[in-house]
Amino acid sequence: MYTWKSHFVIQADYQHWANEVMFTALDHLTPDSLASDQGLFFRSIHHTVDHMLMVSRVWLARLQGENLSVNYRVIHHPDWRGLLNALRRETRKLQAWLEAQPDAFYDGEIEFAGSDGRARPMWVRDALTHLYTHYAHHRGQISAVATRLGAPCPEMDFVYYRREMEKLLDEIRNGGDSPPAAG
Fold first, then answer.
1. What are 111's strand-pairing partners?
2. Euclidean distance between CA atoms 39 and 22, whole angstroms
3. How far apart are CA 47 and CA 54, in angstroms?
4. What is the pTM of this model?
5. CB-based contacts of 62-70 (< 8 A; 24+ apart in sequence)
6. Phi and psi angles of residue 27, each rounded to the nearest 5 degrees, phi first
7. What is the pLDDT of residues 113-162, one digit of tens each?
8. 17-33 residue pLDDT tens
9. How far apart are CA 69 and CA 56, in angstroms?
């Protein structure tokens, strides 16, 4: 049965997968390119990925009923590889946390302090949708800049994720890779 919980757990897995596709494309760029001002809202690819990580932490805290204050003007993880690993861990942490929540959690509301300090109510589903579309928004910006800088264009669409997952499930069902039939 497809539930809000299963939907958002799948979306969490997709976020991890799409980040990995993006990271593979970014591996083709130099450290100077990753750190240079490319006209993004957070200027550089590095700062934008750092922002994605910090936003993930802020929203997980909000979902858990906590408040986390972050200065988005600074880069919190100056080491590029360390940043990528931190985002990997954070994405999987959120996925595991979502898997542990009861189905009823997804029909509830959270309340958090907005950037203006005022209390803001929001449905859990809307908070998660916001987080995941926020990731997609920034991955799209990064992808455009990265391809302009010479990186391969990453295919990060959800449909590609689904196709890859279906292929993996088929391989598991069929006992792994089968040798080609004798001709």
1. 121
2. 19
3. 10
4. 0.91
5. 62/110, 62/112, 62/127, 63/97, 63/110, 63/124, 63/127, 63/128, 64/97, 65/110, 67/112, 67/113
6. -60, -20
7. 887 889 999 999 999 999 999 999 999 999 999 999 999 999 999 999 99
8. 999 999 999 999 999 99
9. 12
